[in-house]
Amino acid sequence: MYTERVIAEFTNPENVGEMADADGVGEVGSPTCGDIMKIYLKVEGDRIADVRFQTFGCAAAIASSSMATRMIRGMTLAEAWSLSNGDVVESLGGLPPAKVHCSVLASDAIRAAINDWRTRQGLPPWDAGSRGCCGEAEPENG
Ligand code: FES
To answer: I want to staple 9 with a disulfide (CB 3.0 to 4.6 A). Which of 4, 63, 94, 132 is the partner?
Structure first.
């Protein structure tokens, strides 16, 4: 069953919608279910000034998106890069095992958006490495 936190995030998600003037956009699809998540970032200096998401997925994916976007607002890009899906799941008070893969969409879409921003800046993308379901990867220098 879903936790009260998950239900609250799903029924009243924050940061939903498109961002027309985003500085970085990341879109990922789940190989498990085919659902899609898109993250839009507004970056000021090295910090995430604003963030929006669009998720075509289940309740767990929408709750994960809402929680993850609330968590990364104000973070540096490196801090947001280090956010794992495990961090998101923990903040949600847990997810049913069959739904943990939904939270991976959020952390992966954030990383894709960060690398889109880096590419637009002429910077090399950070290497996500080989990540499993709950793996973490550190940003490389530069
Ligand atoms: Fe597809 Fe949850 S079942 S994102």
So the answer is: 63
Q: CATH number of the domain that 65 lies in? A: 3.90.1010.10
CA of 133 to the centre of ligand 1 (A): 14
**Structural domain includes residue 141:** no
Beta carbons within 10 angstroms of residue 13's beta carbon: 19
C-beta separation of 110 from 21 below 8 A? no
pLDDT tens-place string over residues 50-79: 999 999 999 999 999 999 999 999 999 999
Query: Is residue 138, in this structure, part of any structural domain at all?
Result: no
Question: Is residue 142 assigned to a domain?
Answer: no
Q: What is the pTM of this model?
A: 0.90
Q: What share of the chain is helix, strand, coil (3-state, %, to 5)?
A: 40, 20, 40
Residues annotated as part of the active site: 33, 102
For a mutational test of ligand 1's pocket, the pick from 2, 6, 9, 30, i.e. the residue with the most ligand atoms closer than 8 A to its C-beta, is 30
